[in-house]
Fold each of these.
Amino acid sequence: MTDNWNLLGHEWAVNMLRQHVANRTMRHAYLFTGPPGLGRRTLALAFAQALNCTQPPQAGEACGTCRDCKQIAAMQHPDLTIVQAEKEGGILRVDQIRELRRGVMLSPYQAQYRVALLLRFQEANPNAANALLKTLEEAPKQVILLLTADNAEQLLPTIVSRCEVLRLRALPIERVEAHLRERGTEAAQARLLAHLSGGRPGYALRLLDDNSALDFRNKKMDDVQNLIAASRVTRFAYAEKLAKDKDVFRQVLLLWLSFWRDVMLRAAGEENTIANVDRADKIEALAAHLSLSEARRLVVALEEGLTQLKRNVNARLLAEALLLDWPFM
């Protein structure tokens, strides 16, 4: 590993965790918070490697090449348990936590520590959250629990209070852009991906490596521009089609939210903070057409729409209501 555990950014977090391993002052549970694509899981896995590396080059470090390090990196170590909802935006259920509890009560099979990685724990239902609380209270000393979540406020305060909380922050856009260019990305593409990521290096790299994800985003952004100019009939037809797949609907809502946040920022006079820099002309035109309060209302409606979608509201009615609220231009 490098000096920063092969991570881009979050040096303070790496230094803290390195000291915990070197001094054997680990907490029994850690919570890594921040938006998806920021490096929460990557940091947690690097920590697990440092905990269980059999050939550490120095205290608090991992070699990255021993059997344990390689298995942890591949998330296939016998003493590493991954717990998460079946899909992003899904539900982490109580039976998954009960199964985890049975496993962590056993002694490590191969490594010094058993590590449980609970991803996107904000997706846990109330029963699962309460079951984890019991596990946190009773986990053996050789067990380290690592949780990730968008923010600590989404979780039970009693869970948060039992964890060492590491609040990860987005990196400067310029730093992500420079990293992409160092990897050989063309300058204009690096600038776009860095802005789209909002300073989240993991998300930027995902867009770089997955052409389908960027193509999907580009198509849905084209749809936004077409819908703004479309009639009510066309919007109703689009809403009906979109509502047929809730997973796709959720992804589209996130993209719409990014776009209308940019409009709101421009309406507020912010010039250098928009994410969708390739849509700057349309964003500028909409910001000139809408007041700040109108733009903010659209953003709030989309945020509430994401919450409502999780509650199994009628997806078609939700899509129709959101689209009919957009300006006609």
Note: The CA atoms of residues 54 and 67 lie 8 Å apart.
Amino acid sequence: MKELVFLKLGGSVITDKTQPYTPRLDVMDDIAFQINMALQTHPDLRLVLGHGAGSFGHVPASEYRTRDGLPPRPTPLTHRERDDTEENYWKGYAEVWYQASSLNRHVMNALHKAAVSAIALPPSSSVIASDGKVAIWETTPIRMALAAGILPVIFGDVVFDEVRGGTILSTEDLFGYLARALAPDRILLAGIEAAVWEDFPARAKKIDRITPQSFHAVREGVGKSIAADVTGGMESKVKQMLELAQEFPGMTIQIFSGEEPGNVARAVSGETLGTLIST
């Protein structure tokens, strides 16, 4: 069986998260080249690529509170007031979709320029959530893309939700569901940070490895994201990945810098970088 790897390109790497709607096109081009190089060097590798929404999706998502779902309806409200509240929510929902899709187009352009055969499979068109978690996802197109040697690309996106009306699922949320469906050997999270830090944001104490047993001792210093991040930042990512590591003891997860030259290719090729999460 070919090794299956999930790779996430964090929004902090492919966008400037301190500047709304600012793609880092040169970084995307370089990472796409690295992905092509790694796939050419390791023809026995299957890769699923995901990416965050960065300064595209998180800005309107914060403004409209899209991840939270439709706001509660205080009573008494007139029918017109309820309509206005819901209309505003769905306006924001559509805006987040537009911005996330716009960033995805930049990523796909970079992959195309690097001669990577890739196809975007937006979660908004195939996933139904229930109270913020994936409930239904037809993953056959992802499986068929992998079998055809095409790189499937997913990304943090809005989805309709049976409980909330709508919500946002991060790439980590999506990887969690896909891990249970496809059983990857490794998950790689490439962000702007060189590793998980014990003393974020001071960044003086790097954590080489996190296990379910060691996390409680370091979680206070792990911290969240400095820029807008409606999906929780580093602490949330680590917690989600620890749950997967416990569920799949043979799987390893790495959090590392996608900015360092060559790091993406090195990690995809099997080198251990940054912080290792395992049981």
Note: The first helix runs from residue 11 to 14.
Amino acid sequence: MAIYKRGRVYWYQFVFNNKRVQCSTKQGNPRVARQIEAAHKTRLAKGEVGIAEPKKVLTLREFGLRFQAEIKVHCAGKPRTIAFWDQKLTRLLEFAPLASSPLDKINKALIARYIESRHSKVAVATINRELATLRRILYLAHDWNEIAAVPRIKMLKGERSRDFVLSHQQEKTYLEAAPQPLKDVATLLLETGLRLGEALALKWTDIELDAANGKKLGYLFVKEGKSKNARRHVSLTSRAQEMLVNRSLESKSEYVFANYAGKPYLVTSLDHLHKKLRGDLQLPNDCVIHSLRHTFLTRFGEAGADAFTIKKVAGHSSVTISERYIHPTPEGQERAFERFANLNQEAVKKAEKDAESLQFPLQS
């Protein structure tokens, strides 16, 4: 049946797959009504053979809202991490061509334009963090079937890494001049390699000062941190243990490093104290508070710890990160070969001894 008029508008009615379809066109023009009817039949026919209407692809600005919601769920309890991703997304959206672009139209050329717009304003490291954010957004969109593919996003070269390591003399001067709680926090970072946030989150229930289960050292327990590998036990040196004992005598809070209100100090508060002390001691700007952890891990590697041990102690997500702290020397290689040779000799001696014990004298 063709279109027909009911009141001032046209309706259409037809049969598709033995089912009656009847709809109002909401139009008073018969030509337009027939076009609407034909369009409806076409949509039904496409669905019959598996042809779906193309899905509208969201722009980066539109999908950014979903990305923020996902980050808040995925990183619940980590306000600094949430703030980091929010800040980087904001920077991306400030570039209008990128913000208004559908996700499937973000390509190398558009990314290059974005990099060019930022290159004269910020450091390479900052641009790389923004590119990493864009890459994470696009991978999430791909996982959610919003786009079919993700363009390859390369990080820029020339990023300056801050690998400052305190000398023992600088460490002595730093700790003597550091106010509390920076002095005690710095001592713990230098002796255990904890991240600053991990140290500030410690509670006294996470500290075991007495050695247990046949161990020689006390330990602390990191419940959570930057990644799932952050959950770990870390042994306490005598200096770290002494600091914790002295601190426990005066503590009135469940937190090891508590402010006047009994709550843990903020990372920003310790960072502020460190920057002021750095200026007073005229240390280089590369000496950030994270350098205390970096100093520990560098010394730990120099002491002979292998990459897998460093990974476990540091809570790294990958052994590749830990390998940067391994710097083999000729002397170290010789010591390794000596230990290898001694191990083999002991194994041979044990095997010979075991063989002798299994031999029985012949019966006469």
Note: Residues 69 and 92 are 17 Å apart (CA to CA).
Amino acid sequence: MRYTGPKNRIARREGIDLGLKTPGSKSHTRLMKKIAVPPGQHGINKRKKVSERGHQIRETQKLRFMFGLSAKQLKNYFAKAVATKGNTALFLSILLESRLDNVIYRLGLAPTRAAARQFISHGHISVDGKRLNVPSYQLKPGQVVTFVSEKMQKTPVVQKTLETKDLIMPQWLEKQATVGKLLEKPSESILKEQIDLRLVIEYFSR
């Protein structure tokens, strides 16, 4: 089941910004002020020594929350990655980063992955000119994504997102205005900066 509770609490528990709140919003500003303080009455004094198994669970949960997946969905992605001969961490990254909702987010067409999922589910996104409403759709190199209508492009939330100056565009993506393209299979470089994929693999391999 996908988590629907307080998002700032999750980010503070993990100690990093998981991209769950819209940058520039009041909620995101509050989060960044307290990102180093764990949630709860006792804050930082509540931290306990974490076992190796505990670290594996935490990294797996971080990955789940970041991409907005249920435990079953992430387990299925791992099963597909491990069934492919080669680097399991790389294949897991490719599967997650190739999701349509993630690509829309990475392109800066939506402020969060949750917003990207909503855009897609409501039929506002097209792939190669065809309207799609499946957030988990796996994009292939060469496919082009954009908004179905100009009306959607002019909504305040999209306009504000497009004006973001500090967007880090992965090298496997290309964008011109509101048109994005997957140039090649995603790498694991950005994901590895936030998640220890080795621990995730160990967790599922137990």
Note: Strands lie at 125-127, 130-132, 144-147, 173-176, 179-182.
